[in-house]
Design brief:
With 445 residues, the chain is α/β, with parallel strands linked by helices. The protein has 2 domains: 3-272, Rossmann fold (3-Layer(aba) Sandwich); 348-435, 2-Layer Sandwich (GMP Synthetase, Chain A, domain 3), CATH 3.30.300.30. It is 34% helix and 26% strand. It has an 11-stranded mixed beta sheet. The model has no long low-confidence stretch (mean pLDDT 89). It binds zinc ion. Zinc ion binds at residues 264, 266, 268, 270, 326, 328, 330.
Length: 445
């Protein structure tokens, strides 16, 4: 840490908290103090936090009161009685889910989901500050100190005045993540000081790395690249690390203020159990065994203004079955893999599940294909859209098809369509898999 880091943490941000009525520094210190607890202390902390949250919610929050769920002394049994909370359910019950009708004093977070339903959640300033504090702790795992130079990719780079002041003090430059001029990207990257941090959506960071590579910018170095917000595919990571001479630290959370896991210095994703209770469920709503893939359902343990209990995110992940400890010294449990959206899976007629990595792992070696998207219309109707690059010929598609069947160890109906453009998702992120199959999990459980 240098002098400026100290100045920011000891003076600038505490003053900011006072002026704005926030608790950012308190939040950051709180999470720092919990990160190295031993496994037993973590368990005790989480059991109490979960019990407190369920007790509070079922006595003070109308939505949960009206559910009339059966109470158990063990909070891990008790929580299983709660139905899953979907964006749709939140929308229908928003007023009943809030502790106060005075939403103007609260912090509002909205997100758009793949379901097309906008999710809105509210939290107190204190709860929002604690989320931000936790986000910074996760960045610290990537070597960041408050006040270090940051280049941050944003979806909407317009900043409010308070944020503009904060950006200056925190040495942060905001730049647009998507749909931008290549010359602007080059310009932004060239202005970067060495040893800064580059943060943003995985797909945006990847796009910047690709442009830098294509334009021959070979001397740009970031101390770390910190990604969040969408899936960090292995081929994204490889490219970003290689082009920017750096290491990627991937964080997993959702815009509703929940930080689920973060990557430590040793490349492991630690679940932030003091902040979130994570369940990975099968299609019937039962917990999957470690090492198996399950639907991500989260409960934020430190938000009482609008408690989110068993919030269904529409993502899939695998909990680690590895019992060995991470060399970083943190006893927080680990996630093996974050697979991504449940609409990002292709299911073969024989029931095999092909995730995004399956396709990217094959296509990244085929330079004649510029971009692709796999669409599952029906269980026996899978279409692959392909944007051809130079040297492309139809033989490439035949080779691709046999490679796919080879890896999947089965054949299935697969057709190709040559296209000029592949639409992005509503938030501007590129889409690799689009499944039109109905959801396997019944969210009305
Ligand atoms: Zn670790």
């Amino acid at each position: 840490m240098n002098l400026y880091n100290h100045f920011v943490e000891k003076i600038v941000l505490p003053v900011g908290d006072k002026v704005l009525g926030t608790s950012f520094i308190k939040g950051l210190q709180h999470w720092r103090s919990l990160q190295y607890l031993d496994a037993n202390a973590l368990q005790v902390q989480q059991t109490k936090a979960l019990n407190d949250l369920l007790t509070y919610s079922t006595t003070k929050i109308n939505y949960y009161k009206n559910l009339n769920v059966k109470k158990y002394d063990n909070p891990y049994e008790w929580i299983k009685q709660f139905p899953l909370l979907t964006k749709k359910r939140i929308k229908e019950n928003l007023t009943e889910m809030l502790i106060t009708p005075n939403v103007e004093q609260l912090v509002k977070e909205s997100s758009s989901g793949s379901s097309g339903i906008q999710g809105t959640v509210y939290m107190s300033k204190q709860e929002a500050s604690f989320s931000q504090g936790l986000q910074i702790l996760a960045w610290e795992w990537g070597g960041y100190h408050l006040g270090d130079t940051v280049l941050q990719l944003g979806i909407t780079p317009e900043r409010t005045r308070v944020k503009q002041i904060k950006d200056i003090l925190l040495n942060t430059t905001y730049t647009n993540a998507y749909n931008i001029d290549e010359n602007i990207v080059i310009d932004v990257l060239k202005k970067q000081k060495t040893n800064g941090f580059f943060c943003g959506y995985a797909s945006g960071l990847y796009t910047y790395a690709k442009i830098a590579e294509e334009k021959g910018l070979s001397n740009i170095k970031f101390k770390s690249v910190i990604s969040f917000g969408d899936k960090m595919f292995p081929h994204y990571r490889k490219k970003i690390e290689q082009v920017f001479n750096t290491k990627v630290y991937d964080n997993y959370g959702c815009t509703e203020g929940i930080i689920i896991s973060a990557e430590c210095e040793h490349g492991n994703q630690h679940i932030i159990t003091p902040h979130v209770y994570l369940e990975l469920l099968d299609g019937n709503g039962n917990e999957v065994a470690p090492g198996e893939q399950g639907y991500v359902v989260v409960t934020r343990l430190d938000a009482y203004t609008m408690p989110l209990i068993r919030y269904y995110l529409g993502d899939l992940a695998i909990k680690s079955k590895n019992e060995t400890e991470c060399p970083c010294g943190r006893k927080l449990p680990m996630l093996d893999m974050i697979i991504g959206r449940d609409t990002d899976i292709i299911i073969t007629p024989r029931g095999k599940r092909l995730i995004v990595h399956f396709f990217t792992g094959i296509c990244e070696h085929i330079s004649e294909i510029k971009q692709f998207r796999v669409i599952q219309h029906q269980i026996d109707d899978i279409e692959m859209e392909v944007i051809p690059d130079i040297h492309f010929s139809n033989d490439i598609l035949e080779a691709l098809k046999s490679k796919i069947f080879d890896r999947a160890t089965e054949t299935f109906p697969l057709r190709f369509t040559i296209v000029e453009k592949i639409p992005s998702t509503s938030s501007g992120k590129p889409q690799i898999i689009l499944s039109k199959l109905p959801k396997e999990i019944n969210t009305n459980l």
